[in-house]
RNA sequence: GCGGUUGUAGUCUAGUCUGGUUAGGACUUGGGCCUUCCAAGCCUACGACCCGGGUUCAAAUCCCGGCAGCCGCACCA
């Protein structure tokens, strides 16, 4: 299995280690070793290049510990849980709602634990395995709880996603973006979920890294000005419909998917395309990627359309590495209600709209004396009424009877007239919708390693993209002669001065050194040989095809910098 | 969380059943020799019985508990 091989290399060569090993470890935690940490940084740098530099989004950083109120508002305190029940006899643990739905075919999602417990006993539902009695239902919350402050009065949680840290300072962000939609804000960082039983290596971690973008848009503006750039991209879509009728994924082009409504909006589709291009850029080819739409039943409570980007793996099958959701106004609305802050945006219409309304115009000279002290109250009351009700009453009875605090007042046409007035409306306040691409960095790193692994009769190597490979260049003396060693060292040092991570290796034979470099995906090797002493040239070896070219030492720095950043192809040296 | 199963250097493994000398080998890694381009060879060094308790004169080996890995079940807003 490639999984096995790549995880062995990852462990041996310092990409990934399970954490706390000398204390016998703890499931769901991984260390990034020396090469893993560089690889991760390089991938995150690529992501920043994609979302910040090219898309024009801005990054923020918020705390990983959040007070309870914030996560109460987001719904995580109450809903990021599973209702559990346990068989008293065989100790089997179940999801209570699944047991009930299986036993009595009734939709019980969202009911409280107490109610679920009652349903269990009312219907005499027993353990499906042994028929034993089930315990009362309890909520297992996947968040790590902690205490904030010395007195420990305030409950806090480790954040289960970075997204909330973006929603909460929305007012500040809106001001930063000078009040105009759309805008995008990203956050890269750790998130925490206390998984019940994480057992899939780096695929299900209790502490993991997310890179999320929250793109705030006007609800009515879900097109994308640059969509034309992506409209011809091919996407392999596995729509909800195709999942339900078991017809498999289908390749289609992005423009078509928007037109036929497979994907709910242009802007969501844009993010799908962006994800595909990003993955291609870091070395995950399109033929191992598909986009799977959430089924209506699995869609999170906050989303109206959600697509997982999945990568094919030999060990786990298709795994989700990115989720791209239209979260609508769910989060902002909820934070707005809980915090009592106005989290809406004033959206100006292209053209001001004028609307004509019919208003009540009392003749105050008569109105005041008629009602005396009650006049202000009556005035307020009629302003709240539907004008047409008064009109109808006038037409029918010639008078409108108003009941107010037990008193009746008669309004007649001689004191009330009607007036049309025109109002100019320049826009409206709306709570923005949020388009959220959420990248699971650890899973992406695993996918990159997995799909970079190449094994053939002659050798095994990691075909890491040159821009993300942890080590850019290996420098070798062909043989361990002092003069060659010395030159190799100085070349290595100069690469470092030029900002490239370079390593020297003089151990074993030249073949072994190439093999060692190949195993960790070093894209290029520079070899100092006998000819170097004669004419000041060295060879540059290309990892992927083993080809070598001879280049003067003075040129190798610019040549390799250009090779690594993609401005120069190896064949054109 | 439940059941099964397995834990010996960085990796793979012998030894465990049947307790007994200094835990053996291969690969890897470090140093050296050799070597003029793809894991060669030679010399040399470093490196291990998952943790804790118990039984015993003596435990890698037997027993109990824990932890971790793997497999199955369950779980994965």
Task: Report what the structure shows.
The protein is an alpha+beta fold. The chain folds into four domains: 2-62 and 146-332 and 434-441, 2-Layer Sandwich (BirA Bifunctional Protein, domain 2); 81-141, Herpes Virus-1; 347-427, Signal recognition particle alu RNA binding heterodimer, srp9/1 (2-Layer Sandwich); 471-572, Anticodon-binding domain (Rossmann fold, 3-Layer(aba) Sandwich), CATH 3.40.50. Helices cover 34% and strands 30% of the residues. It has 20 helices and 28 strands. The strands form eight sheets. A nine-stranded mixed β-sheet has the order 3-10-11-21-16-15-14-12-13. The chain has a five-stranded mixed β-sheet with strand order 25-24-26-27-28, sandwiched between helices. It starts with a helix and ends in a 9-residue tail after the last helix. The chain binds one RNA strand of 77 nucleotides through residues 8, 11-12, 18, 21, 23-27, 75-76, 79-82, 84, 86-87, 90-95, 98, 129, 140, 142, 160, 193, 195-199, 204, 300-302, 458-459, 476, 478-480, 507-516, 518-519, 527, 529-531, 539, 541, 546, 548.
* Poorly predicted spans: none
| Multimeric organization | single chain
Proportion of strand residues: 25-35%
Strand order of the largest sheet: 3-10-11-21-16-15-14-12-13
């Amino acid at each position: 299995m490639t999984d096995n091989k790549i995880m062995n290399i990852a462990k041996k060569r310092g990409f990934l280690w399970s954490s706390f090993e000398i204390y016998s470890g703890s499931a769901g935690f991984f260390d990034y070793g020396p090469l893993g940490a560089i690889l991760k940084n390089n991938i995150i740098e690529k992501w920043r290049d994609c979302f910040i530099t090219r898309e024009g989004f801005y990054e923020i950083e918020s705390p990983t510990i959040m007070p309870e109120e914030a996560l109460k508002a987001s719904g995580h305190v109450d809903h990021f849980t599973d209702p559990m029940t346990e068989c008293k006899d065989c100790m089997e643990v179940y999801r209570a709602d699944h047991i009930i739905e299986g036993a009595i075919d009734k939709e019980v999602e969202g009911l409280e634990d107490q109610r679920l417990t009652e349903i269990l006993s009312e219907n005499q539902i027993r353990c499906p395995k042994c028929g034993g009695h089930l315990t009362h239902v309890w909520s297992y919350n996947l968040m790590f709880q902690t205490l904030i402050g010395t007195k420990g009065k305030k409950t806090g949680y480790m954040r289960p996603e970075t997204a909330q840290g973006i929603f909460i300072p929305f007012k500040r962000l809106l001001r930063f973006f000078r009040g105009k939609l759309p805008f995008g804000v990203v956050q890269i960082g750790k998130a925490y979920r206390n998984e019940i039983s994480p057992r899939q290596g780096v695929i299900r971690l209790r502490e993991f890294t997310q890179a999320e973008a929250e793109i705030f848009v006007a609800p009515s503006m879900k097109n994308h000005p640059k969509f034309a750039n992506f409209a011809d991209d091919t996407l392999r879509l596995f729509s909800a419909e195709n999942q339900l009728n078991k017809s498999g994924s289908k390749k289609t082009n992005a423009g078509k998917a928007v037109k036929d409504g497979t994907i709910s909006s242009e802007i969501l589709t844009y993010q799908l395309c962006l994800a595909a291009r990003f993955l291609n850029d870091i070395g995950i080819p399109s033929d191992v990627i598909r986009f799977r739409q959430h089924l209506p039943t699995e869609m999170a409570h906050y989303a109206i359309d959600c697509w997982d980007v999945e990568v094919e793996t030999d060990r786990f099958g298709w795994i989700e590495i990115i989720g791209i959701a239209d979260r609508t106004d769910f989060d902002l609305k909820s934070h707005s209600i809980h915090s009592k802050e106005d989290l809406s945006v004033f959206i100006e219409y292209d053209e001001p709209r004028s609307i004509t309304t019919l208003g009540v115009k009392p003749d105050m000279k008569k109105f005041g004396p008629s009602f005396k002290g009650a006049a202000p109250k009556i005035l307020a009351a009629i302003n709240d009424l539907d004008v047409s009700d008064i009109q109808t009453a006038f037409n029918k009875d010639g008078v409108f009877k108003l009941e107010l605090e037990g008193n009746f007042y008669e309004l007649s046409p001689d004191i009330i007239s009607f007036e049309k007035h025109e109002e100019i409306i320049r826009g409206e306040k709306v709570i923005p919708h949020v388009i959220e691409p959420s990248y699971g960095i650890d899973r992406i790193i695993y996918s990159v390693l997995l799909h970079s692994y190449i094994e053939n009769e002659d050798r095994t190597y990691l075909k890491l993209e040159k821009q993300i490979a942890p080590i850019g260049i290996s420098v070798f003396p062909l043989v361990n002669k002092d003069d060659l060693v010395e030159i190799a060292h100085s070349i290595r040092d100069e690469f470092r001065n030029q900002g490239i991570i370079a390593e020297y290796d003089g151990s074993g034979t030249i073949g072994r050194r190439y093999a060692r470099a190949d195993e960790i995906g070093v894209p290029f090797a520079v070899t100092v040989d006998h000819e170097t002493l004669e004419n000041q040239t060295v060879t540059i070896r290309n990892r992927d095809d083993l080809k070598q070219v001879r280049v003067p030492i003075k040129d190798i720095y610019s040549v390799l910098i250009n090779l690594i950043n993609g401005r120069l192809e190896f064949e054109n040296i």
